[in-house]
Write a structure and sequence with these properties.
The protein is of the alpha+beta class and 186 residues long. The protein is 28% helix and 35% strand. 27% of the residues are buried.
Length: 186
């Protein structure tokens, strides 16, 4: 099922053939350097565990609105995924994330379009009040995506993690439903 469609990308449910790309992504790609690389959970997983993870996340966990979606080009090349998650204490607020896993599609606007489609989809298919994301000070790309889409920088946890010889800040971004809706009328 196609969840959202833009000029260059679509967001859709996962398909069984996507599992091979997912397995490849979990072992290599520039994206791994930007998505909490100190965790490196995927690198320790076996191929069978990665396949099982994909199946559980993309083929069997399909609530409305979706918790995650595959990003693909209009030409049907899979590029990565978007996701959402929340906390029971704050049902009106979700956090979202994105990973573009094909290196040749980085820095070309695919992620910005996909992230914007994801936010549109979530606000259009729920009563969620706030959508936010966190990133780290070294991830200028993600900061830029948020700025382009109208997210406000809401705060910084200064020097929260030591990584590769230096302290990194965690940056918080968010947008409220009303702000997103006004953004679309400009």
């Amino acid at each position: 099922m196609v969840i959202a469609s833009g000029d260059r990308v679509i967001l859709r449910d996962g398909l069984l053939p996507d599992v091979d790309d997912y397995v490849r992504w979990m072992k290599r790609g520039e994206w791994m350097q930007f998505d909490a690389p100190w965790e490196a959970v995927w690198q320790s997983m076996t191929e069978e565990e990665v396949r099982k993870s994909f199946t559980e996340r993309f083929l069997h966990d399909l609530p409305l609105p979706r918790r995650r979606a595959i990003i693909a080009t209009k030409e049907k090349r899979t590029l990565g995924w978007v996701n959402r998650y929340g906390h029971k204490k704050f049902p009106g607020a979700w956090s979202i994330g994105i990973d573009i896993c094909e290196d040749d599609h980085l820095n070309r606007g695919f992620g910005t379009e996909a992230f914007g489609l994801w936010v549109d989809y979530l606000f259009s298919n729920s009563d969620v009040h706030r959508i936010g994301f966190d990133t780290y000070s070294f991830n200028r790309r993600m900061t830029r995506v948020g700025e382009k889409l109208g997210f406000a920088h809401e705060g910084t946890d200064r020097e929260v993690i030591y990584w590769k010889g230096g302290w990194l800040d965690r940056l918080h971004f968010g947008i409220l439903r009303g702000q997103w809706e006004k953004r679309g009328t400009k």
